[in-house]
Amino acid sequence: MKKLMTILAMFPVVGFVSCQNPADNSKKNDEQKEEQKPDDQKPDDQKPDEQKPDDNPPVELTIDGSFEDWAGLAKGTYSQTYGDEEATHPALTHCKVYATAEKIFVYVEWDVEQVSHDPGDPNDLDEWGDPKGKESVPFHCYINTDGNTATGGFSDQYADASIDVLLEGFIYPDGANVGSYAPGAFAWNGDPNGSGWAWAELGDVTCEGAGVDGKYELSISCADLKGLGFPVADVFSIGFDIQQGWDSVGVLPNAAPSEDNASGVVNSLSVTVQK
């Protein structure tokens, strides 16, 4: 009886061993050898992921008034804001800003019902030699070039009051047609985080501009800003206004006045430079 039990006890072991397929062992050994191969000898699907290049390298937008390039920008590479219809100065309705180490690119929209232009009367000139009644539509870019909220100013339109440089140009230079952007540059010379129209002339900054009624795109040379003593930080901020008769009718960013913010003034728009 003891002998029979010993024989029966052996069957599970023998049965277990008999289920092993030599081909399976061979396959397993081959897989182990494959894993031990140097990475450059492995099949492509077994190689480790290589360091990928930047999926969104900086791009150069073409300033031609077609705006097609803007649709191709990857989400997260640009900043944008929409205007509030209940804002004190609501004519500007939307803007996008994209920046590289070389240029700041701006796309802006406005309500054509609130912004008009006029070439004026060429036969009747004012004291500056411009046709009386001419409306060229001043457009301002307010830039916090160093990204530092402790410097600059102009709390009149921006709650962070940290604007270092003002660019002042015109969307309709001749009053009749949308033209390129050729602004003068001015530096804030008032109190830090102060208010008022306190600007000192700097010179010119190379820009381009093109568009149609209600839409405009422009570029700003970072090299020129640096040459004037205002290099653009990796994270900076910017704001805009559009005017009629030298009074602001549209400001971005903006907000509707409220109990907590009676003026509707908000911070300038933060932008990260793409490198």
What report would you give on this structure?
With 275 residues, this protein is an alpha+beta fold. It has one domain (68-272): Sandwich (Immunoglobulin-like). The chain has 4 helices and 14 strands. Strands 6, 7, 8, 9, 12, 13 and 14 form a 7-stranded antiparallel β-sheet that branches. A hairpin with a 3-residue loop joins strand 2 and strand 3. The longest helix is centred in the N-terminal third of the chain and has 17 residues, at 2-18. It is globular and about 55 Å long. The chain starts with a helix and ends with a strand. Residues 1-19 and 47-53 have low confidence and may be disordered.
CA-atom Rg in angstroms: 32 Å
CATH architecture: Sandwich
Largest sheet: 7 strands, antiparallel
Order of helices and strands: HHHEEEEEEEEEEEHEEE
Strand content: 25-35%
Identify the CATH class: Mainly Beta
The geometry reads as globular
Give the total of domains: 1
Characteristic key phrases:
about 280 residues, Immunoglobulin-like, five-stranded antiparallel β-sheet
Brief summary:
15% of the residues lie in helices and 31% in strands.
Write the layout of secondary structure elements.
Elements: H1 2-18, H2 22-36, H3 68-71, E1 79-82, E2 92-99, E3 103-110, E4 121-125, E5 131-132, E6 138-144, E7 165-170, E8 184-188, E9 199-204, E10 207-212, E11 215-221, H4 222-227, E12 235-244, E13 247-252, E14 269-272
Antiparallel strand pairs: 1-2, 2-3, 3-11, 4-5, 6-7, 6-12, 7-8, 8-9, 10-11, 12-13, 12-14
